[in-house]
Structure formats: C-alpha cells, structure tokens
Amino acid sequence: MTRHELKEQVQHDAFKESVGKALNYTASHRSQVTRWAVIATAVLIIAGAAIWYMSYRRSVRQQDLEAAFVVLSAPVGPAGQFGKNYPTEGAKRDASMKALADVIAKDGSSKEGLIAQYYRGTLKAQRQDSNGAQADLRTVADSNSDVAPLAKIALAQLFAGENRVPEAQELLRGIVNKPTPLVSKAQAEVMLAQLDQATNPQQAKKILDSLKSPNQDPAVSRAVDQLSTQMER
User: Which residues are paired to 76 by β-bridges?
Assistant: First the structure.
C-alpha cells in the first residue's frame, strides 16, 4: 500500500469511527437527542416567525405614515374628481394634526412614529404653538433616528425666532461636530454663519470664507455667496 493509499485509509477509518460513535450515542440517548432536535427546530421556527412579524410591523408602520402624508399633501379648495381635499387651510391643518397624532400614538418611538412627530412639531411651530413644537421636536432631536438632525435644525430655527440665539447655536454646533448624511457639516456651518450675521459679523465672515472651495457642494456655495452678498451691503 502506498503512502497516499495509507493516508486515505486512515482518514476513512477515522471518519467511520466518528460516525459510528455518533450513531451509537444517538441509539443510546434517543429520547435526549430527539428532545434537542425538537427544541432546535422550535427555535428556528420562532426566529423565522419573529423576523416575519418585524417585517410585517414595519410594513404596517410605513402604511400608517403614508396615510398621514396623503392628508398632509391633500389640496385645499373645492372638491375635485380624484383624491382627498379640504375646503380650508384650517380644516387641512386639523386633519393633518389628527393623522400625525394617530401615527405617533400607534407607532410610538419607531422610525415612522418619530418622523410623524417631527412633522407635527413643525406644524405646531407654524401655528405659533411654541411649547408644543419644542416638546415634539426635542423628543425627535434626542433620539437616534435618521430624522434627529432635521429636528435639531427646526428647533434651532424656532429658538432663533424667539431670540434664543445661544441655544440655537448649541444645536447647530452639535451637528457641525457630528454631521450626518441628511445634514452635512457645511450646511450646519452656513446656518451658524446666518445666526452670527447680525451679532458677530466677523465670525460669520470667517465661517463663510472657510466654506469657499471649488469642490464645495453647489447648494452650500450658493448659500455662502448669498450670505456674503447680504453682509457686504
């Protein structure tokens, strides 16, 4: 027998021995093996059901949010042939607030629930309900949701409108130090410069000059040029 044939024979015998031990163990511990097999199967079934349920709930939450957006985007005016509409802006705002509140109540702190809460906060701000707007926007801003930076910007705008500039600056600096795909560092810096425009023009000019670059985002470049022109007048 050659060395190669001997090696194959040894491996084959080792495999046979392992299989034999496994079969002997299974035969002598049949009830225990069966019990563990049933448990393993049950775990797999439960895991699969959990994944399906999570996917199903996410789909339901998305449908809830989409239904609210239908109300938010509905036209105001005489009844049309297609789709939903409202006779007045006030009726639409009331319906929008209710639709968003329903999503928030049902979907809570989920991504869809936080998006609804962000939109409700902006609607409250439009209705001059500063306390209500701050409560909604602060909840979203303090979350780990993708929409959190947008809530911070809305809060900063609200604070700036109430002459609470330091609080607005703090929120924007937080985004500058930790930008996100939705709100870049440069975008937050433009808003900081806008806040500094009246109270600290030198700092505003310094920020704007740092953002002037050939590789800058076109939207940021346009905002920088616009603010710079305003400051020169």
Answer: 86
The encoded tokens of residue 113 equal 């629930």
CB atoms within 10 A of CB 233: 4
- pLDDT reported for residue 148: 92
Calculate mean pLDDT across residues 42-46: 54
Q: How far is CA 140 from CA 113, 147, 232, in A?
A: 9, 7, 37
The whole-angstrom separation of Cα 109 and Cα 67 is: 18
Quick one: pLDDT at residue 53? Answer: 45
Let me know how long the chain is: 233
Cβ atoms of 165 and 129 closer than 8 Å: no
Confidence of residue 23 (pLDDT cuts 50, 70, 90): very low
HSE-up of residue 149 (Cα within 13 Å, Cβ side): 17
- Long-range own/partner contacts, residues 92-95 (CB < 8 A, 24 or more apart): 93/123, 93/126, 93/127, 95/71
